[in-house]
Amino acid sequence: MIELKSPAEIERMRTTGRFVAQVLTELAELADVGVNLLDLEHHVRDRIRERGAQSCYWDYAPSFGNGPFRNVTCLSVNDAVLHGLPHDYALRDGDVLSMDLAVGIDGWVADAARTVIVGTPADDDLRLLRATEEALAAGIEAARPGNRLGDISAAIEAVATGHGYPINTDFGGHGLGRTMHEDPHVPNKGRAGRGLQLRAGMTLALEPWLARTTDRIVFDPDGWTIRSADGSRTAHSEHTIAITEDGPQVLTRRLPRHADSTSA
Ligand code: MG
Question: Known binder of ligand: residue 207?
Answer without folding.
Answer: yes
